[in-house]
C-alpha cells in the first residue's frame, strides 16, 4: 500500500468518481476482481442509495492496509508509480475515499490472519476494530449521497438505478466467466454465474435458457500491427444467433483485458461481423473479451474508466469483425448440418 506522488496524482484526470449508485458498484466489483476473487456477491437494497454490499473471497487486507485504503490517493496497485504499467482494473486510489465522502462505508476484511479488521467511516469519522471474518473483503455502503441533497435529488427512480446496477454487474458476470458473480436485489436473487470459466455458462445464468440455446462461443486469435511490431490478440466470448436480437445496443458487451469498456468502434465492428444477418435497427446479444499485450493499450486515466485507448484500434476492430463473422458462419454450417441429420 503506498501513497501516490503529486505528479502521478496530477496525471490522473480530475473528476468525480461517484456520480450514481452503479458507479459505486463498479468500483467495488473492480476492487474485488483486482484482489483475485473467485467469488463476488453483490447485494443491493432499493436503487443502491439505501445499501450496496459487495463481498469477495480475494486476498483481503491487513489492518494497516485497510486503514490506509479508505484514505484518498492510496493504492497498492502502482508498484513503481508508472501509470503505463497498469494492468489491474483500478489504480487511482480514490474510489473508497470518494465513496466514504458521500456515504457511510464499512469495510470488513481479512488477509488470512487469525482475525480480521473492520473499518467504518461515517461523516469523516474513522473507526477501526477487530472483526471475525474469513479471508476476503466485504464493503457495505449505506445512505449514499445523504450529505449531497442535490445529487440524491438527481437520481432516477430506484427501479431505474437498479437496472443500471444490474447492467454493470451483468457485464462483469458475462465477461469474467471464471469468477462466480451473483447479484441480489431486495433479498431476491437476480442472477448468479457458476465461475466455471465458460462464457456459455455465464450467458445461461444471466440471460436464461432461451438465449443460451441460441448462442455460440467464439475463441479466436489474430495478429495485429501495433506500431512496434505484431501483437497477438485473443478474442473470446459468446454470441447469440441473429434469431435473438435486442432493440438496444446495450447487450453488445466488450472487455479489453478483463475490463468492461464502452467502445462504440468495437461494438460497430461486432455488428459488422453479423453483416446482413442483423435486420434493420436490431442489435445482437454478445459478450466479447479482447486480450492484448499491455504495450498495445494506453492506460486509461479517464475518471469513469469506460474507454481505453488502443494503438491500432482499426486493426483490432477488423480482427473482431472477422472473428465474429467466422464464428457465425461456422455455427450456421453446424446448425444446418444438425438439421440435415
Ligand atoms: P484503487 O483500486 O484505485 O487502488 P481504491 O480506493 O479502490 O483504489 O482502493 C484502495 C486500495 O484498497 C486498493 O489499492 C487495494 O489495495 C485495497 N482494496 C480495496 N478493495 C479491496 C478488496 N476488495 N480486496 C483487497 N484489497 C482491496
Ligand atoms: Mg479501486
UniProtKB/TrEMBL annotation:
<keyword id="KW-0234">DNA repair</keyword>
<keyword id="KW-0540">Nuclease</keyword>
<protein>
    <recommendedName>
        <fullName>DNA mismatch repair protein MutL</fullName>
    </recommendedName>
</protein>
<feature type="domain" description="DNA mismatch repair protein S5">
    <location>
        <begin position="203"/>
        <end position="329"/>
    </location>
</feature>
<comment type="function">
    <text>This protein is involved in the repair of mismatches in DNA. It is required for dam-dependent methyl-directed DNA mismatch repair. May act as a 'molecular matchmaker', a protein that promotes the formation of a stable complex between two or more DNA-binding proteins in an ATP-dependent manner without itself being part of a final effector complex.</text>
</comment>
<dbReference type="GO" id="GO:0006298">
    <property type="term" value="P:mismatch repair"/>
</dbReference>
<comment type="similarity">
    <text>Belongs to the DNA mismatch repair MutL/HexB family.</text>
</comment>
<keyword id="KW-0378">Hydrolase</keyword>
<dbReference type="GO" id="GO:0004519">
    <property type="term" value="F:endonuclease activity"/>
</dbReference>
<keyword id="KW-0227">DNA damage</keyword>
<keyword id="KW-0255">Endonuclease</keyword>
